[in-house]
Design brief:
This protein is mostly helical. It is built from 5 helices and no strands. It is elongated and about 50 Å long. The two termini are 14 Å apart. Bound molecules: protoporphyrin IX containing FE. This is UPF0344 protein EDC24_2061.
Length: 130
């Protein structure tokens, strides 16, 4: 059972897919000024940030911490881009709450998303069906 959680990408993919969906739910609740539901959903999203980072870190330690060369470098950039994406999502939500401009947050969101998806799916080796 432990192997499934340590080496399989399914759990990680589930956590970030749910996290990104929750992010857009909070965003639309905030836009509709539904403050209480937005606050609760945002709390759940923050819990998912932790799940995303934990499952990603588990994948990294169990598969990439001991490898060398470009694979190691790409896995580090992929992981940092993942943390960056989480930070960008949080930044956008806080700025929307305060009524400030979200342009820089979205710019970071898109850059981090491109890095994470291209490295995660196209370059790194684990794949979905392992
Ligand atoms: C919202 C944030 C994140 C997104 C959207 C994301 C996305 C992805 C994607 C698309 C994959 C490829 C899955 C596959 O090949 O089946 C992946 C794998 C991985 N992620 Fe993340 N990730 C995020 C956060 C993180 C974080 C925070 C870390 C590290 C702390 C991390 C570390 C990893 C590692 C080590 C892999 C395995 C790479 C592979 O061989 O495919 N991720 N992630």
């Amino acid at each position: 059972m432990a192997d499934v959680f340590l080496y399989n990408t399914h759990l990680h993919i589930t956590t970030w897919v749910v996290g990104i969906i929750l992010f857009f739910v909070v965003l639309s609740l905030l836009k509709k000024s539904k403050e209480k539901p937005a606050k609760i959903t945002h709390m759940v999203l923050r819990l998912f940030y932790i799940f995303i980072i934990l499952t990603g870190a588990l994948l990294w330690f169990s598969n990439y911490s001991h490898v060398g060369g470009s694979l190691f470098a790409e896995s580090v950039v992929k992981s940092l881009a993942g943390v960056w994406l989480v930070a960008a999502m949080e930044m956008i939500l806080v700025k929307v709450k305060k009524g400030k401009s979200t342009f820089l947050g979205w710019l970071q969101f898109i850059l981090a998303l491109i890095l994470v998806l291209s490295l995660g799916f196209a370059r790194l080796q684990l794949g979905i069906l392992i």
